[in-house]
């Protein structure tokens, strides 16, 4: 399996094999978004999926939101669903994407990548988050019995991966996860060094 192959993700969306989709904005991300005051933040959501978080950001008045996904069928659906809005929809490989963002929201993207790509994710993420910006969202705090995706992980692994390039401001068990994910998610808020 190659989780950076657009056709792999196209097939998942075409067949409806999207078990990660909660059908709504992630509760921890919703709570985080609710406390953001600056509506002019440049925000990126990589591995955008059905973009519930992006829709929520637009609803809350954020004007500079970009979603990034590698699956052509998904980005076409998003362009149709968000036509006439300020949402920027980019079809690209995360590892090739260039830009600078005040905030990157992490929701199921990191866990969709094969673990061998995690160090490259951290390195590239560091180039995308502006100095003084944030990488915030949720990471799994569990293992899975299948080969993935999703791929699991744990706090000690994340500390080792992220600490060289990010200040780990927050990494704690989510108190407000979706019922299906209760006790299995860590909320993160990391700042680039």
TrEMBL record:
InterPro entries from the UniProt entry: SAM-dependent_MTases_sf, TPMT
SUPFAM superfamilies assigned: S-adenosyl-L-methionine-dependent methyltransferases (SSF53335)
Record keywords, A-Z: Methyltransferase, Phosphoprotein, S-adenosyl-L-methionine, Transferase
Coiled-coil region: none
Molecular function (Gene Ontology), one example: methyltransferase activity
GO biological process, one term: methylation
Full protein name: Methyltransferase domain-containing protein
Organism: Chitinophaga oryzae
Classification lineage: Bacteria, Pseudomonadati, Bacteroidota, Chitinophagia, Chitinophagales
């Amino acid at each position: 399996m190659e989780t950076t192959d657009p056709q792999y993700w196209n097939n998942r969306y075409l067949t409806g094999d999207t078990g990660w989709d909660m059908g709504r904005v992630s509760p921890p991300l919703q709570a985080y978004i609710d406390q953001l005051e600056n509506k002019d933040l440049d925000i990126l959501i990589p591995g955008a999926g059905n973009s519930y978080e992006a829709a929520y950001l637009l609803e809350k008045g954020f004007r500079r939101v970009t979603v990034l996904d590698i699956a052509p069928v998904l980005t076409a659906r998003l362009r149709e669903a968000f036509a006439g809005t300020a949402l920027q929809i980019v079809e690209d490989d995360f590892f090739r994407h260039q830009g600078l963002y005040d905030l990157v929201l992490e929701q199921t993207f990191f866990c969709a990548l094969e673990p061998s790509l995690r160090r490259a994710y951290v390195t590239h993420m560091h180039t995308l988050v502006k100095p003084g910006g944030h990488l915030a969202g949720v990471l799994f705090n569990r293992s899975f019995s299948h080969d993935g995706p999703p791929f699991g992980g744990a706090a000690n692994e994340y500390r080792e991966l992220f600490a060289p390039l990010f200040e780990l401001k927050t990494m704690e068990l989510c108190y407000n996860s979706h019922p299906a994910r209760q006790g299995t998610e860590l909320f993160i808020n990391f700042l680039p060094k």
